[in-house]
């Protein structure tokens, strides 16, 4: 391969690997989990193994053909195995990143822990996003919504932090739901400042709970990147699950001694609850997109559009980093986007302030 040992190769995430590769092989190593392994046959009848490798940022397919000495050993690797794959990596066009002269080894327990937590940058961002969600909940002035949000984070915080916002289209990664919710909260707070007639606490609570059913529909195990199909998520979907979860948390909250002080609050407890449930039920915005009811309040309308904006901005971000550059700032269409995308116009930075003179 080269005079370098695999440990000397620069370690990248799969997302970073895609961004730096070209047709010239370059030495890198990645830490990944085997999401699936399948025995295949070429058009000429030769056997090969197809391994789908994942980390917290992306996935790729590694094909091991019959002329490789690794064919027999890779056939024995079960799904869920965590490995380091070092190679001379090249961009193989439509086949994506290709490891040439590969070498692999099992990851240690400490390395697995780092892998599941994501890259240092991703782990930091998701930690900051979760802290933002928690701080936003603590700052709510409606005690019922505040305590409901905090009860949710107390009971389901770990599961919430593992969930994805989707299986494919946006924030489709471990911890993606936290990223999606935190960014939506920032947008909701900004819009509430412009439209003070909005019930800010209700809107922010709706952001937190709108996709909470995805903790079953789109969740990862504690030690893995393979997202299983959950029976409850499959049979009910995240909106009915979210409605049921919030109703259960609300009942438990009203059984606590502190709730006695809320009986005289206006608007009343049941009215607050049904408005929150409406936000969850209507956030898809249209019947054809799976909404059981259309948005009928200002907060529901705002929530639907913030959700849609953040999902599409994430799709664009991914498109700019993974789609083929067609030239002139135009990138190839990607699923589910309906057309090519174009590099956005950069903004002119503001002039630096004039230095103060004495």
Description:
- There is one protein chain.
- The N and C termini lie far apart (64 Å).
- The chain contains twelve helices and nine strands.
- It folds into two domains: 6-108, Nucleic acid-binding proteins (OB fold (Dihydrolipoamide Acetyltransferase, E2P), Beta Barrel), CATH 2.40.50.140; 119-317.
- Strands 1, 2, 3, 4, 5 and 6 form a six-stranded mixed beta sheet that branches. The protein has a three-stranded antiparallel beta sheet with strand order 7-8-9, with helices on one face.
- A hairpin with a 2-residue loop joins strand 7 (325-327) and strand 8 (330-331).
- The chain is an alpha+beta fold.
Question: What keyword list fits this structure?
Answer:
358 residues; alpha+beta; OB fold (Dihydrolipoamide Acetyltransferase, E2P); 2 domains; 43% helix
The proportion of strand residues reads 15-25%
The helical percent reads 40-55%
Shape: globular
Helix count? Answer: 12
The residue-averaged pLDDT reads: 92
Radius of gyration: 24 Å
> Kindly, what is the distance between the CA atoms of the first and last residues, rounded to a whole number of angstroms?
64 Å
Counted beta strands: 9
């Amino acid at each position: 391969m080269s005079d370098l040992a695999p440990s000397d190769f620069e370690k990248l995430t799969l997302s970073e690997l895609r961004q730096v590769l070209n047709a010239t092989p370059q030495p890198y190593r990645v830490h990944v989990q085997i999401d699936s392994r399948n025995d295949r046959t070429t058009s000429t009848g030769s056997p090969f193994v197809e391994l789908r490798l994942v980390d917290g940022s992306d996935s790729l397919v590694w094909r091991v053909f019959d002329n490789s000495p690794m064919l027999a050993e890779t056939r024995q690797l079960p799904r869920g195995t965590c490995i380091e794959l070092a190679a001379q990596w090249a961009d193989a066009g439509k086949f994506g990143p290709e490891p040439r002269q590969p070498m692999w080894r099992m990851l240690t327990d400490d390395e697995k822990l780092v892998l599941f937590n994501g890259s240092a940058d991703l782990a930091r961002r998701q930690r900051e996003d979760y802290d933002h969600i928690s701080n936003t909940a603590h700052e709510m002035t409606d005690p019922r919504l505040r305590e409901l949000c905090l009860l949710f984070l107390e009971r389901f915080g770990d599961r919430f932090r593992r969930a994805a916002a989707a299986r494919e289209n946006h924030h489709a990664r471990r911890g993606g739901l936290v990223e999606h919710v935190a960014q939506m909260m920032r947008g909701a707070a900004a819009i509430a400042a412009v439209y003070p007639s909005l019930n800010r606490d209700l809107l922010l609570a709706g952001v937190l709970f709108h996709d909470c059913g995805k903790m079953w529909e789109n969740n990862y195990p504690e030690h893995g990147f393979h997202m299983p199909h959950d029976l409850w998520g499959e049979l009910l979907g995240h909106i009915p699950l979210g409605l049921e979860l919030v109703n259960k948390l609300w009942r438990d909250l009203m059984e606590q001694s502190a709730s006695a002080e809320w009986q005289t609050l206006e608007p009343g407890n049941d009215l607050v609850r049904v408005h929150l449930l409406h936000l969850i039920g209507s956030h898809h915005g249209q019947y054809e997109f799976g909404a059981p009811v259309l948005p009928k309040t200002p907060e529901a309308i705002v929530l639907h559009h913030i959700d849609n904006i953040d999902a599409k901005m994430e799709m664009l971000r991914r498109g700019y980093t993974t789609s083929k550059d067609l030239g002139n700032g135009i990138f190839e269409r990607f699923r589910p986007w309906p057309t090519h995308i174009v590099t956005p116009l950069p903004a002119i930075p503001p002039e630096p302030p004039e230095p103060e003179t004495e």
